[in-house]
Amino acid sequence: MAETIEIDGPLTWREIAAVSEGGHLNLSETTRQRIVHARRIVDGLVERGVRGYGINTGVGALCDVVIGREHQQSLSRNIILSHACGVGAPLRRVEARAVMAAQIANFAHGYSGVRLETVQALLALLNAGIVPLIPSRGSVGYLTHAAAIGLVLIGHGSAMQGAEMLNGTQALARIGFEPIRLEAKEGLSLVNGTPCATGLTAVALARMERLFAWADAAAAMTYENLGGQADAFAEASLALRQSPGLQTVGQSLRDWLAGSPMLAATAGSRTQDPLSLRAVPQVHGAARDVFEQVAAIVDRELSSVTDNPVVSGSPEAPEVHSQAHAVGAALGLAMDSLAVAAAEMAAISERRIDRLVNPLVSGLPAFLAEDSGVSSGYMIAQYTAAALVAENRRLAAPASLDGGITSALQEDILTHATPAAWKVLSILDNLERILAIELLAAAQAYDLHPRARGRAKRTDALHGCIRAAIPIYRDDRPMNEDFDRMQRLMQGDADAIGP
């Protein structure tokens, strides 16, 4: 049964992530009243003719063009249609739902002035599993992604319910709504703010948190196969460095490798191990520390109002404030740092894969092939991992520094928060693939190990789980099919790696 989350105060990134996976949202009565009150303020502004950006003026460089009351509905509708400029493949279902949830959460603060009816339509689409098709590219911050959602609300655009494609009018009919005739300010609010970046970021955080556990598991299996020196992860020595993430990873590795006969047999065989083995707590731990910093920033963003303009006061004394809260600089910078952290984890995983397949350093059969020469084993799998690491290096270049000038110099600084979040998701796709390769290579190494003396309890259990789904590789099938199977295992079997 889907989890139901009630919006009473600010949502957290974890709640957005839960909704992205199928959870439902409800509005508390207090939240409903906040939304209604803000709408009354907008109506007060319209009645009094108080100038407000996007309420009774044009937008962007047209902000000084005053729009008469008789054209304000057309302005809202035209904003949606003209801003629907996204291109490329649509966001995946999980990502689109996260954007919708973050958009509803932003309106729920009660400073946007969107009508309750409009928010309820968006909420009903989300809870019915109807997801607008949102083109993934063409945004410098927000606007185009959100406009694709707005299109469905006014009866245009396309949406998916399961495998069925619907046009906007059909989608609304499924939830008992007619196409919405937007009122003053609603068009601008529907394309404004940072929900696009915030929603994508919440999905990225959830995925990265899951991959942390798999990265530690993969590192432990590789470490055990290569006969690492276990005291590198000793609690007392790791405690000398101040890093919560490092301590978490150290404990994780100790749990994975506890009681390993293989490590007991190699204890004291070398002074210290290569950095890709002994620096796992430092690298994985640093990435975890970055993750916690980014998570705090995202939760602050979700607690913030990111519309422009915002409304306050009362219907009798309405106020409108033009500012730059829709600029997602904090998110752009945060996601750039998360991108580098994820890419670094992928890079150290590839280095560990190389050590597993390289007979010059592993002590294992060359390229983990049973019949070396006739068979190539995992030789080219390491090539694939190296290619993905190189791709991550390109993707990890900072999006927040891309800059750019739009709207005839009116919007002359861009922070690219949404593209920053999008490229993190791409890096995480690659990280997952690389970890899948390392896990399979480590499982193969166990099977071919010339000095196997029994594995640690947890690594043995994970090896058994992998082998139950994917047999040993003998150059008898396309290897990328194994990668896909391993990724499905990583995505769907949390029990395989335990707590």
TrEMBL record:
SUPFAM superfamilies named among the record's database cross-references: L-aspartase-like
Pfam families listed in its UniProt record: Lyase_aromatic
UniProt keyword terms in alphabetical order: Lyase
GO molecular function: ammonia-lyase activity
InterPro entries registered for this protein in UniProt: Aromatic_Lyase, Fumarase/histidase_N, L-Aspartase-like
Protein name per its UniProtKB record: Histidine ammonia-lyase
Native organism: Sinorhizobium alkalisoli
Lineage start: Bacteria, Pseudomonadati, Pseudomonadota, Alphaproteobacteria, Hyphomicrobiales
